[in-house]
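Lab meeting, item 3. Inverse folding demo.
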């Protein structure tokens, strides 16, 4: 309960002012509490113990040439003990083991100080490794290298080369962890003894494995070349040991919104917003609309803005012609100037008010991808002959032989020579009349 205000004007005003100053201020005038940062992760007790031992060993190195520092060092060492193994040196080393801000180190040193003293005075000769004696055998905070967990089980791959030397054994050297191998890039398997996804075995012997990267889109392969693929990554299809991009937009594998259109990309696709003139679209620009948005009308193949009531031209609307009619004079936008057909072996073809994606020359569409056309090998000239044509050809051949013999018998007589030439021409004309079309086509194609 507030004290009663004193009598008199000045004392009452001073009392009121002091009461006002003691009231809590508005929320917006009160200082905001400092942001609470998450506490740093606590190190594993084994790592703390290892740091303590490392610091202890550095202290021993630092004091290796020190002595008692008194006036008669020889007497002190003769009647007390050698400084090397003295309590004085132990105290000096322990004083500098932990930094002032290392709370975990101070806490562990407090818990293990008697053990350290026991090791210093009694166990140094039989257990020269302080880390092994203190952290592993006595405090049971650590495990030997290549082991993990409460029972110090061997890591996958063995204690000599845990995880095959190509990964990190989780919890190795501590009494925690799962022992799972975190493999390096390119390696996989329980003990990192296999090549991971997208890599193949370049070299392998009894102790080493070298994994090299496959060609870009290959998930599994037999070598580094494009034609060594055995399995493809998502968004690619295997075709003749090569991974070709799947056109999700052409195979209805895309999932775009009602006011978006699909653009194929390597191994995937993108959904892009339709032009504001469109209610649904099949591509970029006002020439690819399914329907026109309110305020736009169909002019040719495009959705264009209507002219305002004041007669001024709306942005994107048709320009009036010289005779005053709405002519709709527009310059076609070449959508192919931007990359709208990024699929492999595809090219863009501009159309009036839009574009389309087609396969490049020498390729054809197959299951949403462009594959190289297989050109059949050229056949021999006589391989397409029918049986009747072969008979005629045989008759011509025998006729030519007979005429040639007759000419020889006539000893070059002009009459028989003329008959011979006429017979050859007649039979050749008859045969060509049956095959003229195919013969010409064969010569044109170079057969």
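The presenter then showed the designed sequence:
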């Amino acid at each position: 309960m507030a004290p009663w205000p004193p009598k008199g004007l000045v004392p009452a005003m001073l009392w009121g002012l002091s009461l006002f100053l003691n009231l809590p201020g508005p929320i917006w005038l009160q200082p905001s509490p400092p942001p609470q940062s998450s506490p740093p992760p606590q190190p594993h007790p084994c790592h703390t113990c290892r740091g303590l031992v490392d610091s202890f060993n550095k202290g021993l190195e630092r004091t290796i040439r020190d002595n008692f520092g008194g006036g008669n060092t020889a007497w002190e060492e003769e009647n007390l003990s050698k400084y090397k193994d003295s309590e004085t040196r132990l105290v000096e080393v322990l004083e500098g083991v932990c930094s002032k801000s290392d709370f975990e180190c101070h806490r562990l040193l407090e818990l293990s100080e008697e053990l350290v003293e026991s090791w210093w005075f009694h166990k140094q000769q039989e257990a020269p490794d302080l880390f092994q004696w203190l952290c592993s055998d006595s405090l049971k905070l650590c495990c030997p290298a290549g082991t993990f967990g409460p029972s110090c089980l061997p890591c996958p791959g063995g204690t000599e080369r845990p995880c095959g030397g190509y990964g990190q054994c989780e919890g190795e050297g501590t009494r925690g962890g799962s022992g799972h191998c975190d493999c390096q890039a390119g390696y996989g398997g329980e003990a990192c003894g296999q090549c991971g996804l997208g890599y193949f075995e370049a070299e392998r012997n009894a102790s080493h494995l070298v994994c090299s990267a496959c060609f870009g889109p290959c998930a599994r392969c037999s070598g580094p070349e494009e034609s060594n693929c055995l399995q493809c990554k998502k968004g690619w299809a295997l075709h003749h040991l090569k991974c070709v991009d799947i056109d999700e937009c052409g195979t209805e594998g895309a999932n775009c919104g009602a006011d978006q259109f699909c653009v194929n990309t390597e191994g995937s696709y993108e959904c892009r917003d339709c032009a504001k003139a469109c209610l649904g679209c099949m591509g970029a620009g006002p020439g690819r609309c399914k329907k026109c948005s309110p305020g736009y009308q169909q002019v040719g193949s495009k959705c264009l803005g209507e002219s305002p009531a004041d007669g001024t031209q709306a942005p994107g609307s048709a320009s009036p012609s010289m005779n005053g009619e709405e002519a709709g004079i527009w310059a076609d936008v070449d959508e192919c100037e931007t990359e709208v057909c990024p699929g492999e072996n595809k090219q863009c073809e501009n159309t009036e008010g839009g574009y389309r994606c087609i396969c490049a020359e020498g390729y054809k569409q197959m299951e949403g991808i462009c594959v190289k056309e297989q050109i059949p090998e050229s056949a021999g000239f006589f391989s397409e002959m029918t049986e009747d044509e072969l008979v005629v050809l045989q008759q011509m051949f025998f006729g030519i032989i007979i005429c040639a013999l007759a000419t020889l018998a006539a000893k070059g007589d002009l009459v028989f020579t003329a008959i011979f030439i006429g017979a050859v021409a007649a039979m050749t004309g008859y045969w060509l009349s049956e095959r003229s079309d195919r013969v010409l086509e064969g010569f044109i194609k170079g057969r």
